[in-house]
UniProtKB/TrEMBL annotation:
Organism: Trichoplusia ni
InterPro entries in the cross-refs: Cyt_P450, Cyt_P450_CS, Cyt_P450_E_grp-I, Cyt_P450_sf, Insect_CytP450_Detox
Superkingdom, natural source: Eukaryota
Protein name: unspecific monooxygenase
Catalytic activity: an organic molecule + reduced [NADPH--hemoprotein reductase] + O2 = an alcohol + oxidized [NADPH--hemoprotein reductase] + H2O + H(+)
Length: 502
């Protein structure tokens, strides 16, 4: 009897393993059958993501970019066949020309389990996305940005002061990444919640507390983010969250504390995001059965994603720009001369929004930093209608990733792409995507809505720092990126020596 049971179990196991083998062989042959170039052989279960938590996405995508020069190539994220786009023309179709076939992101968005992660402007699907986008766009008019620039200049002055007292006076090298996180969290505190606080001055603030929780990259948080963006089926099974539990709860508390205080005092702030979101809630056209919870979660989700996007990407870009300037003294001097000349001509101590926009070399330094170090390397879209381009057919349901790093490192467009050369962008404007060869903020209907806000935040800080200090590197030129972070961020402190200008 026991032998018969054992034989039956063995037969079942053999059948299952055989079926699994043929399923894997069939699944991992998807791209070859379609004549699409395919990267190295996928690993069981992980596909081409076997580097996870050992190598950063920036380094992995950089390696693919150097190895695979085709217009596009196939990969497997887990079991899912994914198309990687290196070609600017195809990217133009995916992001703009054929937007109707690529309306949504592929990333996981579990509304029931993670409303803040699924309803924010970055993740939310159509048709809610279109309505949200239209309602939030007025937050970033030129008039508002001019007002924000005044605040950013004030916070930049505080940044300059902290560099002097904490590092110049103590003859210590600076870890600019932490300082820039503080600076950006101070500007976002007012932009989102209308509260004037200063982590740079006080060492702590409500937004700095949220930042420390939201941007604390550990193995677990890195794994959650990776699954959300690249293996959404796994993210759904384990109910992974876009924002940490601590950050989510604190965003909720701070948001409702501000709202309740305004109701109690009758005071309001027409310039911040909270005020705009409260108006948005009144204007939203949601299904009658959704109740107030969906509207509340939509407001909270926009506040949360604005904090993440505005603080992390701007602070990282500032860090890498200072790092490059510290290794390029000639370019640093050229930038110093440009800003100093503008200040002399204006007769002021600080340049305003319009004056900063006129600084062509400052813009070139920022754009070249964003080319070489794009915070997001792969821009995801889910194909919702079968799409054809040349000999390529993309089937409905296939995730498509525009390889921003691959496009930014195209040697035909950017000779010697590993070198940092601001002169590539000397006549560049913030609206110029250079025929889809410059895409740090994405492009098309889903481009980053906070692009001009982020650029203003970076300009204000750099303009004030470069006129007060000279930078010399105290670390290796190559910056090791954090393998736990999906967004580009340094793994170690990038120490910079600073010297006060006379």
């Amino acid at each position: 009897m026991l032998t018969a049971i054992t034989q039956s179990l063995l037969a079942v196991i053999i059948i299952c393993l055989t079926a699994f083998y043929f399923f894997s062989k069939h699944r991992y042959g998807y791209w070859k059958k379609r004549g699409v170039p395919q990267v190295e052989e996928p690993v069981l279960f992980l596909g081409n993501l076997s580097f996870l938590m050992r190598k950063s996405f920036f380094d992995a995508v950089y390696d693919w970019t150097k190895k695979y020069k085709d217009e596009y190539f196939g990969m497997y994220f887990g079991w899912t066949p994914a198309l990687i786009v290196n070609n600017s023309e195809l990217a133009k179709h995916v992001l703009v020309k054929d937007y109707d076939s690529f309306q949504n992101r592929f990333s996981y968005s579990g509304l029931d389990d993670d409303p803040l992660g699924s309803l924010n402007l970055f993740s939310v699907k159509n048709p809610i996305w279109t309505q949200m986008r239209n309602e939030i766009s007025p937050m970033f008019t030129s008039a508002r940005l001019k007002g924000f620039a005044n605040l950013m200049n004030s916070n930049s002055a505080e940044l300059v002061r902290k560099v002097q007292t904490d590092f110049i006076d103590n003859n210590e090298p600076v870890d600019f990444k932490k300082l820039f996180l503080m600076y950006t969290s101070d500007t976002v505190a007012y932009t989102v919640f209308g509260i004037r606080v200063s982590a740079l001055k006080e060492g702590m603030s409500p937004l700095w507390y949220i930042t420390c929780n939201m941007l604390k990259w550990s193995f677990w948080r890195g794994l959650e983010f990776t699954m959300i963006f690249f293996m959404p089926v796994i993210a759904a099974i384990f109910k992974f969250k876009f924002f940490s539990k601590e950050a989510t709860e604190y965003v909720k508390k701070l948001f409702w504390d501000v709202v309740n205080e305004r109701k109690k005092t009758g005071l309001t702030n027409d310039t911040d995001l909270v005020n705009l979101l409260l108006k948005l809630k009144d204007n939203l056209k949601l299904p009658a059965e959704s109740g107030t919870e969906l509207a509340d979660n939509l407001m909270l989700a926009q506040a949360a994603v604005f904090i993440l996007g505005s603080i992390e990407t701007s602070s990282t870009t500032l860090s890498y720009c200072i790092h490059e300037l510290s290794h390029h003294p000639e370019q640093q001097e050229k930038l110093y001369q440009e800003v100093s000349k503008a200040l002399k001509e204006s007769g002021k101590d600080i340049l305003d929004y319009n004056e900063l926009l006129e600084l062509k070399y400052l813009t070139a330094c920022i754009h070249e930093t964003l080319r070489k170090y794009p915070p997001v390397q792969l821009l995801d879209r889910a194909c919702n209608n079968t799409f054809k381009w040349k000999d390529l057919t993309i089937e409905s349901g296939t995730p498509v990733y525009v390889n921003i790093l691959g496009i930014h490192y195209d040697e035909e467009k950017y000779p010697q792409p590993d070198e940092w050369r601001p002169e590539r962008f000397i006549n560049s404007s913030d609206n110029d995507n250079h025929d889809f060869s410059f895409l740090p903020f994405g492009e098309g209907p889903r481009f980053c809505i906070g692009k001009r806000y982020g650029m203003t935040q970076i300009r204000c800080a750099l303009a004030q720092l470069i006129t007060k200090y000279r930078f010399e590197s105290d670390s290796e030129y190559k910056v090791v990126s954090d393998p736990y972070s999906v967004l580009l961020t340094p793994k170690y402190d990038t120490k910079t020596k600073i010297f006060a200008r006379s």
